[in-house]
Each structure stands twice: as structure tokens, then as C-alpha cells.
Design the sequence.
């Protein structure tokens, strides 16, 4: 079976792989289906060579109904969808520069990176850091849900979290938008690393101007 959503997941996966945002069999992509179920890339699949017919399909209860065995991160993806109704696609990668920051020292537990560029403020925003748990850990999922709820309650909803030593999870209303958010996040981490962390964040008045002007 193939559909526009199947094909879009494969297109996004191939694009991320070709440009070095993912490697080997690292990373996964999921989308929410109109019936409440989900499509997700299979476990240990290379995002650069995905087959639309082999993507895993699960129903609203998380029971697999088609395709190869679903990624072990399905539980975390489902918790993100349940916590943020606007999320329609979730992407997880092992983005090199972001993972490096969790090894050598993040900016703060509440924000892996400071707001150093306007597009980081406009397209990404806050990215809380989740302490290390093994891949697929239920505890990691609980901490991600808690972070989403904490920021929503403060009036600053998030669309990304950073799993220590693993990589970012980002979500948005389309696969293309989620990919763009991921790219902006990783490229900002690259800038931060290249500058050795010696970058002055944008001042609060500049950030507020971006928020007012672009609804960031």
C-alpha cells in the first residue's frame, strides 16, 4: 500500500539522509493518520532507503496493522501526539552537533541552545533537555510529556525536546515543517559549536520584536 503520506515520509527521510542529518539506521519519522492511527518508519530502517509499502501502520490503540515492525520509539511518538493535539508529524534523529552539546555541556537544562539567530527564535524556540534514558524508555516519554505540559502552562508551547546522548525529537503540522524545524535546530547547534560557545544571545528586546512581528 502507498499513499501521499507514505511517499512524503520517504521523501523527507531520503532528504535528511542525503544531507547528513541522519546516518546508518539512526532516526525515525511518524505521522498522525486521519483515523487516529499512525504511520512510522520500521525499526532499524535506514531513512535514506525507505520503502513506502513497508512503513509500519498502527491503529489508534498502538496495535500494528500493516508493514514492517514499528520503531521502538513508537511509544514516545504517541505520547507526544496525545499531549500536543497540533502535532501531525514527529521526527527523531541523532543530529551530530546537538548530541555533541549534551556530551560537552548544554547552555541550560531548559534550553539546549541560546537564542543566537532570529530564525532560531522564529522557527524553533525553547528546547528543553531530557536526562539520559535508554532508547525507548518509558521514563523518557514521561519526562518529555512533562516538559511539553510545563511549557504549555507557561504560555510558551514547544515543538522540540533534546534527549541527552540520543538526539532531538521535533514535531509540527506537516513532515516538511517538522524537517525544517529540525534543520534549523541542528544548524544553530553547528554555529554554536563552531563559535566555541562564545556567542552573545539576542537581547530580550530583539526576541520580543521577533515574537510580535512574526508571531514566533
Sequence:
Amino acid at each position: 500500500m502507498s499513499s501521499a503520506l507514505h511517499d512524503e515520509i520517504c521523501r523527507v527521510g531520503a532528504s535528511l539522509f542525503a544531507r547528513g542529518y541522519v546516518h546508518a539506521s539512526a532516526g525515525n519519522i511518524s505521522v498522525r493518520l486521519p483515523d487516529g492511527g499512525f504511520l512510522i518508519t520500521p525499526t532499524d530502517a535506514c531513512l535514506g532507503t525507505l520503502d513506502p509499502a513497508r512503513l509500519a501502520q498502527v491503529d489508534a490503540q498502538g496495535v500494528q496493522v500493516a508493514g514492517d515492525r514499528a520503531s521502538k520509539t513508537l511509544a514516545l511518538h504517541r505520547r507526544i501526539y496525545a499531549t500536543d493535539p497540533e502535532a501531525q508529524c514527529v521526527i527523531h534523529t541523532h543530529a551530530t552537533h546537538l548530541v555533541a552539546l549534551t556530551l560537552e555541556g548544554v547552555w541550560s537544562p531548559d534550553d539546549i541552545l541560546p537564542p543566537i539567530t532570529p530564525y532560531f527564535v522564529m522557527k524553533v524556540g525553547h528546547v528543553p533537555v531530557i536526562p539520559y534514558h535508554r532508547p525507548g524508555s518509558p521514563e523518557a516519554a514521561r519526562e518529555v510529556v512533562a516538559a511539553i505540559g510545563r511549557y504549555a502552562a507557561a504560555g510558551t508551547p514547544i515543538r522540540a525536546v533534546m534527549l541527552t546522548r540520543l538526539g532531538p525529537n521535533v514535531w509540527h503540522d506537516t513532515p516538511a515543517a517538522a524537517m525544517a524545524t529540525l534543520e534549523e535546530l541542528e544548524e544553530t547547534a553547528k554555529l554554536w559549536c563552531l563559535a566555541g560557545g562564545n556567542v552573545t544571545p539576542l537581547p530580550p528586546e530583539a526576541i520580543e520584536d521577533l515574537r510580535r512581528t512574526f508571531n514566533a
